[in-house]
Amino acid sequence: MEPIIQESELPEPEATRRDANVTESSRANRGWWDRNADEYQIEHGTFLGDDRFVWGPEGLDEVEAELLGPPEELKDKDVLEIGAGAAQCSRWLVSQGARPVALDLSHRQLQHALRIGGNVPLVQADAGVLPFKDGSFDLACSAYGALPFVADPGLVLKEVRRVLRPGGRFVFSATHPIRWAFPDEPGPEGLSVGASYFDRTPYVEQDEQGNAVYVEHHRTIGDRVRDVVAAGLRLVDIVEPEWPAWNTQEWGGWSPLRGNLIPGTAIYVCVRD
Predict the structure, then answer these.
(1) What's this model's pTM, rounded to 2 decimal places?
(2) DSSP letter string over the chain?
(3) pLDDT at 153
(4) Coiled-coil segments, which residues (predicted)?
């Protein structure tokens, strides 16, 4: 594989809050993940494992959570993983007898999936335009994939509903919305409210020409619920994982200090009736 692109080789982007539409967000985030996939896998690959299904930085494992259903019921299920990265979750699904497809926007992330190996079909595509026929999958899942980064999450949710079979389940995790009110710092400075929870202005990193190179979008809990319902899905649970005592790792703004006081992840469990 090509060497990692070091941050020092590129000018430091400017962080700001401004609007970013569907096209700009998709272009920026495809480029960001292609540039940063190597570093991401080096930094977090051990924690994620090659064939574990981890829902977020807290370390909640699908083995324990069973949010997709009991493991014995995953056998022979067609599963779509959205924002799969290096397809760690899909490999775990294979070990349970499921038939996953791992989809990601980033070509470089999928190269890491090839590097690790395993019998998982890989697809590079935008989550808002899924290249599958109606009713192709029994289940869909997304562990911090796509939803935090798209300007119109309703497009993704409607596409997921379209490709799910009746009775199918979609489970996705994203940054807990309350996190947006606090600075993205793992230490004490990240415990004081610094912004309005209700400010939906996207977080954008842009280059010297003002072009977005990274975009993340904020939705409140109420927004997420309305998005799910508007897409024709039924919300059956919202899981807010607590920080476990065994997890001493910091991951960006996630940390044991903050995790013991405020939630860092929200997991939405949805059903297509």
Answers:
(1) 0.95
(2) -PPP--GGGSPPPEEEE----HHHHHHHHHHHHHHHHHHHHHHHHHHHTTT--B-STT--BHHHH-TT--GGG-TT-EEEEES-TTTHHHHHHHHTT-EEEEEES-HHHHHHHHHH--S--EEE--TTS--S-TT-EEEEEEES-SGGG-S-HHHHHHHHHHHEEEEEEEEEEEE-GGGGGS-S-SSGGGGS--S-TT--PPEEEE-TTS-EEEEE----HHHHHHHHHHTT-EEEEEE-PPPPTT----BTTB-HHHHTTS--EEEEEEE--
(3) 98
(4) none
